[in-house]
Amino acid sequence: MIGDGIARAVTAVNGCVWSPPLVVLCLAAGLYFSLRTRFVQVRRFGEMFRLLFGSAGKDKKAHVGISSFQAFAMALSGRVGTGNIVGVATAIGFGGPGAVVWMWVIAFFGAGSAFAEATLAQIYKENHNGQFRGGPAYYIEKGLCSPFFGALFAVLAAVACGLFLPPVQCNGIALSCSRSFAVEPWLVGVAVSVLIGLVIMGGVRRIANVAQVVAPVMALIYIVLSLVVLAVHYRVVPEVFMQMLRGAVGVNEVGGALLGSTVAWGVKRGIYSNEAGQGTGPIVAAAAKVSHPVKQGLVQAFSVYIDTLLVCTATALMILACKTYNIIDTVQQTDGGTVVAYLQRNPAAPPGEPGVYYTTGALGSVIGRRTGDMVISVALFFFAFTTIMAYYYYAETNLVYLFNRWRRRRLLHHPDRYEALERADAEFGDDRGEKIVIWILRVGTVGAVFAGSLTGSGIAWTLGDIGVGAMAWINIAAILLLSPKVLRVLKDYEKQKKQGCEPKFNPKGLKIKHAVFWEKE
Bridge partners of 327? Predict the structure, then answer.
């Protein structure tokens, strides 16, 4: 009884945090930044490619930080996860084909928010023992002069991303692999825990090196597989696009009754998937070595397009072309089990609630059901594995922020140790205590990952959702309040580009305070 009560309370809190106002706020922020930047995510689209793959983005000689491509790959690791397979199927199941179009809309405007938060992360980043640290906690403290809300964000990020969300991802891997390969879930948990431990114990550079190979390659292979499926069903592809467009505005057989759900599920899954505005992307964006903050803002905006317009769309087109989906009206839990009422049923679709079976069914129609299950399980493994890596880095950065702010406060209360305080500011806390804290997080994350293979993911997922949702509330409010600085920095970047020179950032010339790293450059 007590456990049920706690579960209901946690679910109720989650419903309040991820309420319609948050969805509206995410969409409004994306629209605001798109308009105020004159749709920089469209105007500078070609430049995104050049920054990502060109010499300006690689900076191989840098001894501090990581390259723009590595930061892009790490952000992609966090954005591309199980939601790209399971989440898209859920959106179609409850919102119909038109929900995919609304996911595109969210990605288009969300790229504006992603640009803004990544640019701010670069402005207020700090040099931390040979690597850059930054993100919402840093720009909230320095840009808004609000240490309390900076620390609150950091606590939420460290707990949600370090403890609650990794076991959820491992649970998905364990269940999928045990079903497809007949392997015991705990054995999968051991394998994932060992692999994660080997990666995260190498620090940000090893995480970046793994992410820059695994994330793009896995996404590319998945997209190629979807193209194979579409090639087999090429005759229906034009009709699939028409279904999506008609469904997005309610012009189809069930459109009138479904339009509200179409918009709601498309917007919700789009926000969940691309993470724009939630405050996780800028944590990785700050780690890159660039000559101007706008460069990394453009690169991170591009990662939103990859997540939704390519990977999510690949899943959606497979499902829709093969008709391995149903459109759900209601789902009720009764004593006899789950009762599902349908608005539309397709013969090739499995009964029950929507999920990964929609995707495996689509792929299985071309390469065989058994093989399809195995391929999707492998895709889920890599998508979820790289997401866990990203979660760990989010948690580590915010834990380091909290530890060093606490350490500095202690030193401030001892004027006789002023020289030690200045050394701490210069080196940003390079001491044994910080290393101990990081190792505790690493062991805790590995343990949480293994635990996820043994237990259900329900309450952990909900608690993680609460943390991420609360992070989004704080972060979106912060980037809106700091928007004048984003626009000022973008104007400076475009002015230098027009003059034909390589943009260099000078915060003093733009009257931006507390950009400590750039002031020393």
Answer: 344
Tell me the CA distances in angstroms from 291 to 319, 504, 505, one per residue in order: 43, 5, 6
* Tokens describing residue 69: 């491509």
pTM: 0.87
49 vs 374: CA distance, rounded Å:
33
Amino acid letter, residue 454: L
Let me know how long the chain is.
521
Give the position of tokens 């119909």: 96
Q: Which DSSP state fits 66?
A: B
Q: pLDDT digit string (tens) for 185-241?
A: 889 889 999 999 988 888 777 888 888 888 888 888 888 888 988 898 889 889 989
Give the closest residue to 116 by CA, choosing from 477, 511, 521.
Answer: 477
Residue 89, CA distances (Å) to 152, 348, 353 in order: 34, 14, 10
Question: Which stretches of 482-520 are DSSP H helices?
Answer: 483-498, 516-520
**Residue 481 is encoded by which pair of tokens?**
């309040």
**Rounded CA separation 141/181 (Å):** 48
Q: Which amino acid is at 50?
A: R
Cα–Cα distance, 192 to 81 (Å, whole number): 15
The more confidently predicted of residues 486 and 89 is: 486
Q: Which residues contact 399 (CB under 8 A, 6 or more apart)?
A: 154, 158, 162, 437, 438, 441
Q: Are strands 131-133 and 337-344 parallel, antiparallel or unpaired?
A: unpaired
Task: Give the DSSP letter of residue 311.
Answer: I
Highest mean pLDDT among 132-141, 323-332, 417-426: 132-141
DSSP H or E segment with residue 347: none
Calpha distance 469→465 (Å, rounded): 6
At 107, list the tokens. Answer: 């990605």
